[in-house]
Amino acid sequence: MALAVNAGARLDRLPISSFHYRIFWLVGAGMFFDGYDLYIAGGVLASAIQTKFSTVPQNLQFISLTFVGMTLGALITGFAGDKFGRRFTYQINLLIFGLASLAAAFAQDMNQLIACRFVQGLGLGAEIVVGYSTLTEFVPPRTRGRWLSMMAFLVVAGFPATALLGYLIIPAWGWRPMFVIAGVGSLIVWYLRKNLPESPRWLESQGRTAEAETLMQSIENESAGGAKLPPVVVPAPVPKVAAFDMLKPPLLQRLLVGSWVLITINTLIFGFVIFLPQFFLRQGLTIASSLAYTLVLSVGSLVGCALGAYLSDAIGRRWSIIGASIVTIISGYIYARFEAASDPAIVLSVGFVLIVAIYVQTAILFGVYTPELFPTEIRLRANGICNTLGRGATVISPFVVGALMASYQLPGVVWLMISLVVIQIAVVWAWGVEPRNRGLEDVATAKT
Asked: Alpha carbon 33 to chain centroid distance?
C-alpha cells in the first residue's frame, strides 16, 4: 500500500517553491515564540529577584518546573503526534503556551508564576518535538540540513529578542510585559497556522493512502508551477517499524545517541546560557549592565545557528557536531580561566566564541540530527523520548548549577559542561549515522 503513493520519494524530488517557504514560515513563527518563551527566564528572574518578587530557591523552582512541564509535553506530544497526526498536535501545544503566557503576566505572587510556567512548559516541550519533526518530513534531502538549521535559527532568535526587549523593557516597566508579548504573539500564530497541511508521509504510514495521494497532488501542482517535475525515483521498500523496535538495534543505538546529545545541549543552554544575567549580577554588575552583556553574547547564538545551517549540509552532521564540541571544550576552559578577572574584552570575546560553538550544536542537534534518526512511523515518539530525557536532565540541572556556583563559582559550571561534551563526542563518533544528502527512508535503514 505504501508503494501506491510513495510520498517520501515524491516530496524529495520537488523543486523548492512557495509551498516550502509557506510551511517553513508557518511552523517557524510558532517556533520563534517557543524560543522567545524559553529564553525569557534569564531577564525575568534577574528582575524578579532584584525587586524581591522572588527568592533564589523560587527562581530555581521556576526553572526546574519549566522543564518538568517541557519533559511531560515532549513525551505526550511524541505519542500524540504519531497517533493523531502532526497538524493536530502543533495547534494544541501552541494554544497551551500562548494562554499560559498571558496568565503568567498577571501572576500575583511567585507561586502563581511558577504554576503558570509549568503549564507553559507543557506547550514549549511539545512545540520543539512536533515543529522540527514536521518540517523534516516536507523538505528535500539535499538542503534538509539548511532548512532545519534555519528553523533552529528562528527558535534561537528568541534569545537576542528577549535580551533586547528585556534591556529596553524590564528596567522601566518590569518583567510582566515580556509574558504579554509571548502570549499575544503565540495566539496570532495559532490562528494563522490553521491552514498548515498534514504530513503526507504520516498519512501514508497510517494507511490513509487516499488522503495522502490527494494532498501529494496538491503539493506537486503548487511546487511545479506549470513545469514538468523530475521523475520519481522509487526507493527500496522500507520495513515498517513499531514502537517496540526502539528497544532493539539499530534503533536502540540511535535512541541513545539522540538522548545523550539532547541531555548535553539542554544542559549547556539551560545550565549556562540562561544563567548569564545572574552570573553577571554575581560579579556586581547592575541589572541594566547584566542585560547589556547578555545581549552582546546572544548575537553569537544567531551566528552559531547560521554557521550550523551551512556546515550541516557542507560537511555533514557528525563532523559538524564533533568539531563544534571540540571548540566548546577549548573556549569553555579559557572562559572559566579568565571570567573571574571581569575584563569585558576577554569575557565578551571568549564568551562569544563559546556561545557560537554551543549554538552550532543547538541548530544541528535539535533541528536537524535527532528528528532524522528515526522512521516516520515512530519519528515523533522517538524524538519525544529523546527530548523527554534531555528535558528531564534539566529538571535537576538548575540545582546542580546552583550548588556548583556556591562551591566552585563559574569554573565548576564550565567543567560540568566540558564533561558532558566529551562523552557526546564519543557517542556520536561510535554510534552516530550520517543523514546528509539521504532521503529519510534511506536514513531509516542506514548502518553508518
From this structure: 12
Per-residue confidence (pLDDT) for residue 253, from 0 to 100:
95
d(CA 63, CA 409): 19
Helices (H), 174-247: 176-192, 200-205, 209-224
Rounded CA-CA distance 35/55 in Å is 25
pTM for the full predicted model: 0.87
- Asked if 303 and 359 count as a contact pair (C-beta separation under 8 A), the reply is yes
The CA distance from 375 to 222, in Å, is 26
The residue assigned the cell 563559546 is 354
Q: Indicate left, alpha or beta for 90 from its phi (over 0: left) and psi (-120 to 50: alpha).
A: alpha
CA distances from 266 to 306, 327, 386 (A): 19, 17, 11
* Contact predicate 432/318, CB 8 Å: yes
Residue with cell 504520516: 202
18-214+241-445 has CATH 3.30.70.260 classification: no
The segments of the chain whose pLDDT lies below 70 read 1-3, 274, 277-290, 339-343
d(CA 245, CA 145): 26
Cα–Cα dist 200/212, whole Å: 5
pLDDT tens column, 230-240 = 999 887 777 88
